[in-house]
TrEMBL record, chain A:
Record keyword Ribosomal protein present: no
Cofactor: FMN; [4Fe-4S] cluster
UniProt domain NADH-ubiquinone oxidoreductase 51kDa subunit iron-sulphur binding: residue ranges: 327-372
Family: Belongs to the complex I 51 kDa subunit family.
Enzyme class: translocase
Key words of the record: 4Fe-4S, Flavoprotein, FMN, Iron, Iron-sulfur, Metal-binding, NAD, Quinone, Translocase
Its biological purpose: NDH-1 shuttles electrons from NADH, via FMN and iron-sulfur (Fe-S) centers, to quinones in the respiratory chain.
Catalysed transformations (reactions): a quinone + NADH + 5 H(+)(in) = a quinol + NAD(+) + 4 H(+)(out)
EC number(s) on file: 7.1.1.-
A GO molecular-function annotation: 4 iron, 4 sulfur cluster binding
Entry-linked InterPro entries: NADH-UbQ_OxRdtase_51kDa_CS (IPR001949), NADH-UbQ_OxRdtase_suF (IPR011537), Nuo51_FMN-bd (IPR011538), Nuo51_FMN-bd_sf (IPR037225), Nuop51_4Fe4S-bd (IPR019575), Nuop51_4Fe4S-bd_sf (IPR037207), Soluble_ligand-bd (IPR019554)
Protein name as catalogued: NADH-quinone oxidoreductase subunit F
Automatic annotation (TrEMBL), chain B:
Lineage: Bacteria, Pseudomonadati, Bacteroidota, Cytophagia, Cytophagales
Protein name per Swiss-Prot or TrEMBL: NADH-quinone oxidoreductase subunit G
Cofactor(s) this protein requires: [4Fe-4S] cluster; [2Fe-2S] cluster
Residues in 4Fe-4S Mo/W bis-MGD-type domain copies: 221-277
Keywords: 2Fe-2S, 4Fe-4S, Iron, Iron-sulfur, Metal-binding, NAD, Quinone, Translocase, Ubiquinone
PANTHER family: NADH-QUINONE OXIDOREDUCTASE SUBUNIT G, RESPIRATORY NITRATE REDUCTASE
Ranges for domain 2Fe-2S ferredoxin-type: 1-85
One MF annotation (Gene Ontology) recorded for this entry: metal ion binding
The UniProt record lists the keyword ATP-binding: no
Provenance organism: Chryseolinea serpens
Any one of the GO CC terms: membrane
Catalysed transformations (reactions): a quinone + NADH + 5 H(+)(in) = a quinol + NAD(+) + 4 H(+)(out)
GO BP of this protein: ATP synthesis coupled electron transport
4Fe-4S His(Cys)3-ligated-type domain mapped to chain residues: 83-122
UniProtKB/TrEMBL annotation, chain C:
The protein's name: NADH dehydrogenase subunit E
Cofactor: how and how many bound: Binds 1 [2Fe-2S] cluster.
Record InterPro entries: NuoE-like, NuoE_dom, NuoE_N, Thioredoxin-like_sf
Alphabetical list of SUPFAM superfamilies matching this protein: Thioredoxin-like (SSF52833)
Organism expressing this protein natively: Chryseolinea serpens
One Pfam family matching this protein: 2Fe-2S_thioredx
Organism lineage string: Bacteria, Pseudomonadati, Bacteroidota, Cytophagia, Cytophagales
Amino acid sequence: MEKPLTQHMRGDGAPLSLKEYERAGGYQALRKALKEMEPKAVTALVKESNLRGRGGAGFLTGMKWSFVPMNAPKPKYLICNADEMEPGTFKDRILLEQTPHQLIEGMILSAYAIQADQSYVFLRWAYKLAAKVITQAIEEAYAAGYLGKNILGSGFDLDMHLHTGVGRYMCGEETALLNSLEGKRATPRAKPPFPQISGLFGKPTIVNNVETLCCIPHIVNRGADWFKNLSPGADAGTKIYGVSGKVKKPGAWELPMTVTMRELIEDYGGGMQDGLKFRGALPGGASTDFLVEEHLDIRMDYTGVSAAGSRLGTGTMIILDDHTSVVGFVRNLEHFFAQESCGFCTPCREGLPWIEKVLRTIEIGEGKPEDIKTLEFHTKYLGPGNTFCALAPGAMEPLQSALKYFRKDFEELIRHKISA
Amino acid sequence: MATLYIDNKPYDPGTGKNLLEACLSLGLDVPYFCWHPSLGSVGACRQCAVKVYKDADDKKGRIIMSCMEPVTDNQRISINDVEAKEFREHVVEWLMTNHPHDCAVCDEGGSCHLQDMTVMTGHNYRHYTYKKRTYQNQYLGPFINHEMNRCIQCYRCVRFYKDYAGGKDLDAFASRNQVYFGRHEPGTLESEFSGNLAEVCPTGVFTDKTLKEHYTRKWDLTTAPSICQHCSLGCNTIAGERYGELRSITNRYHGKVNGYFLCDRGRFGYGFVNAEGRIRKPRVNEVETDKQQAIDAVRQAIVGQRVIGIGSPRASLQANFVLKALVGEDHFYHGVSDNTHNLGELVIKILKEGPVRTPSMKEVESADAVLVLGEDLTNTAPMLALSVRQSVRQQPLKHAAASNIAPWNDAAAREFIQEEKGPLYIATVHTTKLDDVATRTYRAAPDEIARLGFAVAHFINPAAPGVNNLSEAEVELAQHIAQKLLEAKQPVVISGTSCESEHIVRAAANVAWALHEKNKQTGIVLTLPESNSMGLALMGGHRLHSALDAILNQHADTVIIMENDLYRHGPASMVDEFLKTCRKVIVLDHTQTPTTDKARIVIPSGTFAESDGVLVNNEGRAQRFFQVYESTDVIQESWRWLLTIGAAIDHPRLTKWKNFEDITKALAQEEPLLKGVDHITPPASFRMAGGQRIPRESHRYSGRTSMNAAINVSEPKPPEDPDSSLSYTMEGYRGLAPSQMIPFFWSPGWNSIQSVNKYQDEVGHSLRDGDPGVRLLEPRGTKATYFIGIPEQFVPRKGHLMAVHLHHIYGSEELSAWSPAVATRIPQPYVLLNPVDAEERNLKADDTFNFDIEDQAYAMPVKISPDMPQGVAGLPYGLAGLPYVECPSWCILKTNMSWKKEVYTP
Amino acid sequence: MLTVEEKIEIDKAIHEVPVKKAACIEALKVVQQKRRWVSDESIKDIAAYMDMSPEELDSVATFYNLIFRRPVGRHIILICDSISCYVMGQEKLTDLITKQLGIRYGQTTLDGRYTFLPNPCLGTCDHAPALMIDNDLYRDVTAEQLEEILGKYA
Ligand SMILES: Cc1cc2nc3c(=O)[nH]c(=O)nc-3n(C[C@H](O)[C@H](O)[C@H](O)COP(=O)(O)O)c2cc1C
Ligand code: SF4
Ligand code: FES
């Protein structure tokens, strides 16, 4: 089983140094691309590889790049979204802390493809170690001539900067991220225009997730077919999956996209803790729909999870066990979303706190039958398109699916006026 | 022609709009909050949701925000779709979860967009049972009240204040459901346009604090269409009265002049109408009398006497015209300084005889390059500054459009544009508040500003005379400006009279004319000192100086001074002597001034609120204001007093005129430059369908039958209006009034000012039957005859400083200064010097500086600014207690001379 | 008044971006790092330095939860209150901290030693519950360890 993203990790959690990375074949892809490939060819290759964005939305990466106007004047920007703040998600952290040069190489290649001359890593504040590691790696890359002017004598220039945030989940939303990088409030921007046309400082910009970018060197090195074949199913490449919650061995693993939910929980996560039963899971972070027992054997790829009524999201699964209150679980999630709402659009700003209050009331045994209706109209009307960005629709996914699969839990608390 | 299907009916949506604008323009009701026709769309409130369908077969559709989607051909949408309606209802429900429901005590109640939208969406019952969020309010100064709990977070306030008007001290704070709009700390809002917050805010967060002092609901106001009295731009206003007191000024939309906004001087300057200094009774020899005695006194003072009349740039055409008729053409004088008189004539000559047209403010907004010569617009013509601020977005917006970003897509356009600005050049004596958007600025003495202008004209077109002895830097700047103006499609040159320099105005004309030869779309805007400066200048009449001569040389016995404080137009010593020498001084005015103090007979004129009249703005647009209410006492229009006097002396001409219309007709016939002013509004005999008048009161006027019940239950007969087809009651026509005479904006379901969209052709465009007013000045010339006579370089003189005026939005204008709210914002008199000049004279900031201009002594505290040109001293214009100075003029420096400041307070 | 040191660091950040204002968050971070929190005075000073109005800067400052606009203690305890940590017993830890230190979320101990704040997901969900004190991350935190951990911060 190939694990291109993680196979060279040292195992002690320390970062691969530039030397170590180069010894493992690092920066070969960059040399190859700069020497042999037109920027357009890189984009075409990535398109062909079928790589889908690992930041949650799963958009085809090569396609996204192809919307950047190639003849636009400089500056153009490439941004790595390392804001990882989706609850339950801890996959980018591993890549950031342990293989910084893999990310940097991926970023240089991506920047080359779209002919960006400026790049930023937007890192969340809490990742202190990653900040140190990335800072050092960027310095090393400059020193080695992988960054800066005339990279490896190719005539291609690229600068890279690290920006660490000051909180707020919204910063992970790609357009809010741009506002934040511009020193503004991290409220999202209207789309269209998409960042590819008018992004950072109004210039063409690509935002990609850490994991997405880390795939690029391997695709350039080994080709689109190799990448596709990593997972024999519908989706290409490997994915870093994670499991958290009350399993015996929570953790994260790079696996082909053919892995099933059951395998993840049982084979990798060690199964449920003793005495606890699996009730459900959010397959890809806080803003995905619950999957339940009947879905345990679905494939954890984009297609498989969608077919089951949820989203692969970030691929990091949170387990709900039978000793944890469903209402409390969902209330915790909605509290998070209500707190993290940027306050720009009405349904999200006013609706989420309302939901949180309703859930809290039910949780403490003071719920009323009509509370379910209140929750339901929110799940209906905080959907995609109704709110300004995807935060509120994401917030509705666990709620709507909880009402679908665990409605009884809500109703019992209300009927019997007990607390969770 | 594109077709838009709305609920399966085909419509022609026009071009370039978003769906919300299209629906509103078609007269359909779609609720909204954050969208504003001038501010564009940002998609925050989610109130304007509609369904859109892929094609005729798509029955499911999806919800979109109509403000965020461009209209496309054959698009199918539904406003009435059940889900869309339900969603819109929920949006109001969400907004209401935290809204205090304090309508009964809220100033916005009854004219509240949030109320209207709540009713429109059908949200009636509350389901939210939790605690509401509460905020602390801030003190925001004398104009605006703050009540944050009512906020629905539509972001309109900051978008107007910051993005549109360039204000710096209002913003959005915090996040999630705690977003707060206000200042960093309590304090007076600095923007000159803060009053618009009261109209832009869809609920009662920002409200008019001056209205609060004598609060009246919109439906309890008697209102009339009016014209702002506080600068030469002539913004359209709605003036509202109750119990004989003027209570508020709000915007009256005009598609070409002021659009949706007003400046704070215009909005809050009305207090002079109610001020204690109002003259309410006639006075003869300082004793109050009744009307008859006053008329008798006047008759005695003029029968058999040699009478001259002095008109006024702040009085209506009608008033000036009747005065002129009363005293005879040869004895009518313009009550402005000779310099101002000359400038007025020069402006008219340029606009009429030159080849270049003067654009409206709306057109200035869409100019793609602007040169300002000499004017600190924010302080002399504030709303024009707001237009210029929009103009710098024109070129960048075109670039955005090339990337498929529509101008109405406001946030997206701003993000694309970032700091890019179109060309704007400002040459003034000192800094201006528009400098932050200027491409380059130039600061110098007036003559130098004129020289720069002449040089620009020459570089544009060598046929215009060149300028000698320019420095290298000046040549570079002038060439750069010339270049950028030449590259523009619709360049505009702006200047005016506030520097009191004919050179500057001529230079501006040369630039415009030079450009015109290369680009027919060039415009020139020239601002004037007062609300009817243009009207007065268009009317025959002599220079003030010759009036003084007539009296001083004993060619006249009696002077009638109308609505004019001569101390604002001539040196105190001269006016003193004039008033002393004159045997009989009759003054008609509404407000006590140093001039009325010296009058033998004082006649109480109406202010604009108690009067009908026509003013001509700087664009040459003649516009009518209507009487808002009849004064309860003897106060009446100056022209009506003059007619009464005419009748008393059996004046052959005046006795022929009975009312406003008679005067206006005669005026239009006799004054060649004022032809057409009798067609501004329909005649007084005009009636709407069913023979109805247009009511000044909304039909919900709650208190008319009971408002005087404490005094008398029998309802008095309402006054008749002989001068217009407006009525003083709520009875009358209920539909839309003709655009020239809209007393208030109201439409079923639309109680707030946002109902204005029902009165427009298309949202944000002209009013339905055309924007009001008649433009009197269209250029006749085809070829430029360039001005020659370029001033010499400005060279500081030893022991002297060149005094120039600096204008203040609050204080420099006479009438608004009498309004209590505005009065609190007036600066203390000062003299502004360059640090080098100050140091040479051993002056530090706040030291008293003694100097002398034409024998008038001054002593004022010094302010120091490095942006002040060397050799020039800035004096605030027109502040109370500051004697008249004709500027620019040399002031001579004195030492240890003291001058006692006399602040005039009636 | 900004110190020379602060100005040097802010200048460095300004150098990294094409528009001066874009460095304003960095500027806030610099000042917070030196002074632990950003006072109204500091907002004015930084704003002036960045050619912004205090409003414009404070609008940004108050948006982000990790810019502290009120005084904080010497040490900041950020407990992850997101889902995985919740499942793994974070609420109990929170109660324990409140009991031990006598402060709830948003409060600072009277001796100014700790400020206690909730924080969304710390990105270490496989080692929940987690908390961060100053720059140190603690994972798989148990009730028993709490006292020892807190004790490290004087
Ligand atoms: C509220 C919200 C938060 C998000 N947070 C992140 C994040 O932390 N990291 C990330 O990579 N993408 C995040 N996304 C998704 C990004 O908007 C964007 O789709 C992604 O960075 C694109 O990268 P990709 O195409 O490589 O997946 C978030 C989206 C939303 C709506
Ligand atoms: S955001 Fe809102 S008003 Fe506001 S108009 Fe649009 S969506 Fe509509
Ligand atoms: S949920 Fe706490 S670290 Fe992820």
